[in-house]
């Protein structure tokens, strides 16, 4: 009859958007505040692998373990990129200038 029912349309719309919720606020040490987006999903996880990662990461919940593991992967990649830089512009004179006391405005 020329279209889908409203419930079918909204379900298709949710799948297309990935069921992302916005507006969750997270506070990190040092009082840094960020807004995050979350996505609800179902994945098959090796429970022994999750338990081992949780023990290493010091997390209790599976979601926290997955988030911590993802952060660790991103942090490692960032450190590897930083290690590959040559920093040719950081001569002793440039470093001395950077270390000098500067007046506050």
Q: Indicate the low-confidence ranges by residue numbers.
A: 1-21
Q: What is the average per-residue confidence, as pLDDT, rounded to a whole number?
A: 78
Q: How many β-strands, per DSSP?
A: 2
For the report, how would you describe the main beta sheet?
2 strands, antiparallel
CA radius of gyration: 23 Å
Secondary structure: helix percent = 40-55%
Order of helices and strands: HEEHHH
Q: List the quaternary state of the chains.
A: single chain
Beta content: 15-25%
Question: Which features would summarize this protein structure in a list?
Answer:
alpha+beta; single chain; elongated
Short account of what is shown:
It is built from 4 helices and 2 strands, in the order H-E-E-H-H-H. Residues 1-21 have low confidence and may be disordered.
């Amino acid at each position: 009859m020329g279209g889908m029912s409203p419930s079918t349309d909204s379900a298709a719309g949710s799948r297309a958007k990935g069921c992302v919720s916005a507006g969750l606020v997270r506070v990190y040490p040092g009082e840094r505040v960020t807004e995050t987006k979350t996505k609800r999903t179902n994945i098959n996880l090796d429970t022994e692998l999750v338990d081992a990662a949780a023990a290493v990461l010091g997390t209790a919940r599976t979601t926290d373990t997955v988030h911590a593991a993802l952060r660790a992967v991103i942090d490692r990649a960032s450190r590897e990129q930083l290690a590959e830089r040559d920093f040719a512009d950081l001569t002793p004179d440039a470093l001395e200038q950077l270390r000098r006391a500067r007046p506050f405005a």
